[in-house]
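Final report, Chapter 2: Outcomes

The project's central promise was a pipeline that accepts a single protein chain and returns its three-dimensional structure in a standardized token representation, suitable for archiving and comparison. That pipeline is now operational. To close this chapter, we reproduce one record exactly as it appears in the project archive, with the input sequence first and the structure output second.
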Amino acid sequence: MSNAQDRSLSFGSQAAAYERGRPSYPPEAIDWLLPTGARDVLDLGAGTGKLTTRLVERGLNVIAVDPIAEMLELLRTALPEIPALLGTAEQIPLPDNAVDAVLVAQAWHWFDPDQAVAEVARVLRPGGRLGLVWNVRDDRLGWVKEFSKIVGLEHDRVTSPDLPAPFTDVATHRVEWTNYLTPQALIDYVASRSYCITSPADVRERTLEQVRELLATHPALTNSAGIAMPYITVCIRATLS
């Protein structure tokens, strides 16, 4: 198994922290990603169901697929009526022509792109939509800039929108928004990041200690019950020709 695969499958040990610490997705981004009239939607790499929840709220028929059992357990607890299947982007456990849209939140960079493109094309109906989305911290200013010096930059995870045939009409969209979280949720956010999970225990603890110190000393964060984390949500969509 490659290092990337190790890291992509590492989230199970921190599934609860992932659920507590990770942000959801802004409605504007989901509006832009979904095709008009979509009914059946696959959330591929669904994790604990951050995006799944937003799709279910819209009255869509949603199927969730993820390779990590611990993540799906949390999703099933929160959304017991949703089919939650163990599976990968390279072997999607659905029949051909099954869905109107496949959405991938925070996960395309973990997939084998060639195999994933072929599988997504297989399960999509003709004219169906592939939508990719990432929440990226906006670390240009203030405390978030200092935070990123501790936990590392995120921008390298966003895959370029070079989706090959049979996908066409590739387009990108950005949404700037703010997520509000508690100091403890910020710690959970760091603990749930793959580099932190897969680091040696002393490195992981040092990182978390530096975040606690930032929370205790930065003027924008001290004695604050609610922390404003600015995000840029990057969206990529393409149509199955």
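Archive annotation: Confidence is low (pLDDT under 50) at residues 7-13.
This record, like all others produced under the grant, will remain available to the consortium after the project formally closes.
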